[in-house]
């Protein structure tokens, strides 16, 4: 069967991509693909997917296996063994023009959702994030704090703050993302597939994302089931 929809969700670290992607997967029944696994599998099946050798070079130069990402596909053909749920929200994929061009050789997105959140909001969100290293469980001291301050809910072990979530590092990360993402966003805007959504709260952005997707494909679950 042909693909019904191929969508990518872009946004800086802390913009709520993970939440948006979970809701898309649940509401519309679309497989959520880990781009790292998807691209590695695609490269291994290069003949079937028609990948040129230069695509692999672009992926490698573009560091095309970031720590997770968000790609959806409405069909299963040409995506061997690529299905899986992303463990958490990463910096968006494709993050660079090289990655976008390499992704085109695998599957050209039908729809690109770009999330825009104010710098100060992102900085506050990321600086409030702590993790349990062994499991990867993520806590946010503002939205979902641990039951015991500084301790993992399941094991009771100490939580740590990643170096790149420290306030000084966050500002650098966001600047780098903005610089790298600008040509990617312009590329998709020029194709007419880019849809941008702005706000400080995911719950307020989500209804507009939901309405957009409903205009493309029917939901499999009612919006009331939140």
TrEMBL record:
Keywords: Kinase, Nucleotide-binding, Transferase. Signal peptide: none annotated. The keyword Transmembrane does not apply. Residues 129-164 form the Adenylate kinase active site lid domain. It holds the Pfam family ADK. Belongs to the adenylate kinase family. This is KAD4 kinase. The lineage of its organism: Eukaryota, Metazoa, Chordata, Craniata, Vertebrata.
């Amino acid at each position: 069967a042909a693909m019904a929809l191929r969508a990518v969700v872009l946004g800086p670290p802390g913009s709520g991509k993970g939440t948006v992607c979970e809701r898309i997967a649940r509401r519309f029944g679309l497989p959520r693909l880990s781009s790292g696994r998807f691209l590695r599998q695609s490269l291994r099946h290069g003949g079937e997917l028609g990948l040129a050798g230069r695509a692999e070079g672009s992926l490698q130069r573009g560091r095309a296996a970031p720590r997770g990402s968000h790609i959806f596909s409405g069909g299963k053909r040409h995506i061997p063994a690529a299905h899986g749920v992303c463990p958490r929200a990463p910096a968006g994929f494709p993050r660079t023009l090289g990655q976008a061009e390499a992704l085109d050789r695998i599957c050209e997105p039908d729809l690109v959702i770009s999330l825009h959140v104010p710098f100060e909001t992102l900085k506050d969100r990321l600086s409030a994030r702590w993790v349990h290293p062994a499991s990867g469980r993520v806590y946010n001291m503002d939205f979902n704090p641990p039951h015991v301050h500084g301790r993992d809910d399941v094991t009771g072990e100490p939580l740590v703050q990643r170096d790149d979530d420290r306030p000084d590092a966050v500002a650098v990360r966001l600047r780098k993302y903005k610089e790298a993402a600008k040509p990617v966003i312009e590329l998709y805007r020029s194709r007419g597939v880019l849809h941008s959504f702005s706000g400080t709260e995911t719950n307020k952005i989500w209804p507009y994302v939901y309405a957009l997707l409903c205009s493309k494909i029917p939901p499999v679950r009612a919006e009331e089931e939140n």
